[in-house]
Amino acid sequence: MPEQSYYLGVDIGTTSTKAVLFDRAGKVIAGDTVFYALETPNPLVAEQDPEEIFRAVLTSVRKTIRKSEIDTKQLKLVSFSSAMHSLIAVDATGSLLTQSITWADTRSAKHAKYIKERMNGHEIYLRTGTPIHAMSPLSKVLWLKDEKPEVCEHAAKFIGIKEFVFHELFGTYVVDHSIASATGLFNLEQLDWDKEALAVAGITREQLSHPVPTTHQLTGLVTEHALFMGIPEHVPFIIGASDGVLANLGVDAIEPGVLAVTIGTSGAIRTVTTEPKTDPKGRTFCYALTENHWVVGGPVNNGGIILRWLRDEFASSEVETAKRLGIDPYDVLTKIADTVNPGADGLLFHPYLTGERAPLWNANARGSFFGLSIHHKKQHMIRAVLEGIVFNLYTVLLAVEELTGEPVRIQASGGFARSDMWRQLLADVFDKPVVIPESFESSCLGAVVLGMYAIGEIDDFSIVSDMIGQTHTHEPQEEAAGIYRELLPIYIRLSRLLTAEYESIADFQRKHLE
């Protein structure tokens, strides 16, 4: 009988780090999640403690290995997924000069606007694949230079959270092509730092990490960390890719024409092309998976983070009910929403609580209810919030379709996919069948499959279709889909009409809340 092999995927997310151990067939053996805070003292700031996240990586791996009770000699690799767009400044000794400034931080909105309007921003986007926006490390570096010159004076490196983790583990600064392609500083054709983008940011290539393929391997863990995690020092660590592109791989959405929809803390719509492709209108991203797999799509800031806001700020009684019943508070909220008619009886919600990326690319965008009348109750507002998140994703789909054509299949993943109500809502709003893999660990599974490819255990990614397990399929319900076809044009027109007012209210908030 052949020796069993195990593969560990680690996903460094915005609100938690997750480690999941798989066997060769894709079966989950064990897993663990460690949560941490997203510091948001005002509407513009969204930072995290890099050292806390690094501890979360160590702890999640340690707990997963212990739960699994495997012989660690059978552990073939550890492969990484990570959230994109973070920025950390460190000095020459590797000491932190800033927190991790996350994708949700919008303090560089005015700098992004300046780059777009005055610094040849659109041409930079066409080469780098990252829309000019406050999420982009390109914009963040420029903001740091203006607002915190004392930090930049001592900054030896500008890195992301995965680079920080790998430096702690191995003592070297490397960045995979996938994370690099989400910085706004990386030339997609040359697979190297873009000279004009560097000039705009006012930094040198030596102040950035060395770019490597997503299949790059590192060995020789720092002994202290290897002992803590309970794994051998010689186990290869695969640098991996970003969470978004690995989610595509992890749900078997890597063939052209297959669309992946993910709603986690944030959300995205993505499809794969065989070469880099950017949008003449600047609405979509293009990120690397491998040299032959490029992920085109649009990210939204406002996914599950909006549901968490709804839970924390408006649903205290529902949370208490959930505790008494021993069920997830989110299940209570979706059950309440399911008692309301599709369309929430004419109540619309724009979920722009953290600004918005695709399709607006407007860090000044703000959330709103529209159509609120005396007959609407809390349950209508809950339903409208859930629908608003999916409506926003639908508007991203329209932009992606212009570039890559109408999808032949939609694969959905993320925390929302655990809810039958959300899955059906997605099918009804998109008016297309939606397929949901049984495994919800898409980014970790994608990291593991990429890792298997990196060490030569597989020749291509076809194995993933057998690893994702059975699927659920939701067909659109014609009555609900018809209602959404009426409401979606109103939803889209509103966000366009409010563009000037978004800027006005954001200016007011910056003036009075900073």
From TrEMBL:
<dbReference type="InterPro" id="IPR018483">
    <property type="entry name" value="Carb_kinase_FGGY_CS"/>
</dbReference>
<dbReference type="InterPro" id="IPR018484">
    <property type="entry name" value="FGGY_N"/>
</dbReference>
<dbReference type="Pfam" id="PF02782">
    <property type="entry name" value="FGGY_C"/>
</dbReference>
<dbReference type="InterPro" id="IPR043129">
    <property type="entry name" value="ATPase_NBD"/>
</dbReference>
<comment type="similarity">
    <text>Belongs to the FGGY kinase family.</text>
</comment>
<dbReference type="InterPro" id="IPR006002">
    <property type="entry name" value="Gluconate_kinase"/>
</dbReference>
<feature type="domain" description="Carbohydrate kinase FGGY N-terminal">
    <location>
        <begin position="6"/>
        <end position="250"/>
    </location>
</feature>
<dbReference type="InterPro" id="IPR000577">
    <property type="entry name" value="Carb_kinase_FGGY"/>
</dbReference>
<dbReference type="GO" id="GO:0046316">
    <property type="term" value="F:gluconokinase activity"/>
</dbReference>
<protein>
    <submittedName>
        <fullName>Gluconokinase</fullName>
    </submittedName>
</protein>
<dbReference type="GO" id="GO:0019521">
    <property type="term" value="P:D-gluconate metabolic process"/>
</dbReference>
<feature type="domain" description="Carbohydrate kinase FGGY C-terminal">
    <location>
        <begin position="259"/>
        <end position="454"/>
    </location>
</feature>
<keyword id="KW-0418">Kinase</keyword>
<keyword id="KW-0808">Transferase</keyword>
<dbReference type="InterPro" id="IPR018485">
    <property type="entry name" value="FGGY_C"/>
</dbReference>
<dbReference type="Pfam" id="PF00370">
    <property type="entry name" value="FGGY_N"/>
</dbReference>
<dbReference type="InterPro" id="IPR050406">
    <property type="entry name" value="FGGY_Carb_Kinase"/>
</dbReference>
